[in-house]
Amino acid sequence: xxxxxxxxxxxxxxxxxxxxxxxxxxxxxxxxxxxxxxxxxxxxxxxxxxxxxxxxxxxxxxxxxxxxxxxxxxxxxxxxxxxxxxxxxxxxxxxxxxxxxxxxxxxxxxxxxxxxxxxxxxxxxxxxxxxxxxxxxxxxxxxxxxxxxxxxxxxxxxxxxxxxxxxxxxxxxxxxxxxxxxxxxxxxx
Length: 189
What we know:
10-stranded antiparallel beta sheet; SH3 type barrels; 189 residues; 4 helices
């Protein structure tokens, strides 16, 4: 279990300020975002990249080695407020975040065609999967994935929840493919 306390997460969520997150065992980059919700197992962020909202991100608490909101984060939050971006953040999330199983169930209920990115950043080689949720089991998930050219793969990929480090939805990258599929409805499987 992560050493990041629930009290700290509660205070950071209430602050509505950008957070900086480190996962030293995964990579050296910090992740910035607004904490939308959390549980014992995962956190849900409004991911921020280069002063833009870039979708929602789920991270495992056990992977987080540091989480803080410092003076730079506060300053950058003010920039987002001044630019009108802060007001677009939906702090009252509709997703269930008890664990990945609950998150995916709520996601599929809201939009069964929602595209997702799943990553196992610690595997060798790292795993990156972009696709649509097909089936959700108690301990795993089945994803119908597609190539970078938007060609659906014949076989679904199955991922154990324990092997997933991060999940992204509604990112700029995902929305590009979503627009393609919306313009080409025969491309949906």
